[in-house]
Amino acid sequence: MTKEHGLIKGDSVGQSALAPDMRWTSELKRTRQAGPSQIHKDWSAAGFSTAAVHAGTTDDPISGAVGTPIYQTSTFLLDDEQYRSVEEGYARDRFIYTRYGNPNQWALQTKLAALEGAESALVFSSGMAAITATVMAMMDKGAHIVASNELYGGTYNLFNQELPTLNMSVSYVDPRDYEAIEAAIQPNTQILYFEALTNPLLKLVDIKRLSQIAKRNKIRLIIDGTFLTPISCRIVEMGADLVIHSASKYLNGHSDLIAGAVMGSRKLVDMVWPRLLAYGGSLDPHACFLFERGLKTLAIRMAAHENSALQLAQYLEQHPTVKRVFYPLLESHPDNSLAVSVLKNGGGMISFEIMGGDKAALKLLKCLNIPKQATSLGGVESLVSLPFNTSHAGYTSKQRQDMGINPGCIRLSVGIEDAADLINDFEQALNSI
Asked: Which of 46, 82, 376, 398 could cross-link 78 (Cys pair, CB 3.0–4.6 Å)?
């Protein structure tokens, strides 16, 4: 094999650069490779930690720097190859302008795709940018979505407020009621949209079953996998067409950037890319550097999250002040059998309900010393919040109760602190109320 124009001879990206007589409009055999124009080693057979460290990462051949440099530039030099890529439809695979693509974005996207077991990935300036671009790319005007009735508030606002202005509609259904999901499908339905693990009650959806429904009805399945990472399960391999992440959470893991990502087939991700350009949600090179650095420790962080979360959930479950605890690896969880069969990691999210309602819950938060009162999740530090005044403040009290979010519900993102320290802190806080 020989390298030419940043490609391996015979690769399918930019075929016209290697065979000028071949054209996009007339050559039906033309396909795309999984990644960018740079050459990356294939780490798909490696373990998660190895792939997290090495996949996509580019060592600088000029300085010898270990790790991807920050390409803090808005634009790139143009030559015949760049012009040809625009003319013939593979501009995504060439560096032209950072909003279109940047080496830091591609290093990160290659790593994400390797971890998810997907062909391709895109990164965005936020999780909502990823959700908006992906959903809009998969829908025509007047289309219909069947979605979970327990969506993240930002997604619900997009569906409930923005989509109707484009004559698009959404039907909301119980994410566990698969007969109702199929019954909600209409002739103009184009998407099933669900969260792998719901917020905040941690209901685990059966992605394989949803995939069967989608395929049977010839519609696409999009899964928000934010609460579960590829360490827990590879959602694309389970049958989803696209998986979306608010990467500000577990994927980055350090509560220091806002980012989003989508992973899936190269064909579908290529369809999302023009929406990224149109909506302007590109991720800047320095944020990509931070994101890539965070991903390198994903596997060991998730092991620590699960270890502390499971021990804390077991402690909370036996405390007399706690009414109920939601954590998928607890035997008491309604979806425990599914969780045990499909999850390689239970994650660090716990929700629990205490006696005394929201007033007692607010007092508990003030008595805790280790968890910080803050929105978001998935960082190395434990974060605690109440859904009624944060993530689900946009819902009415009746809507929350219909979801099962009762007064006194607390959402806890368990960090990587020692389980014993967290248990001792909750012991003193619960006793104080």
From this structure: 82
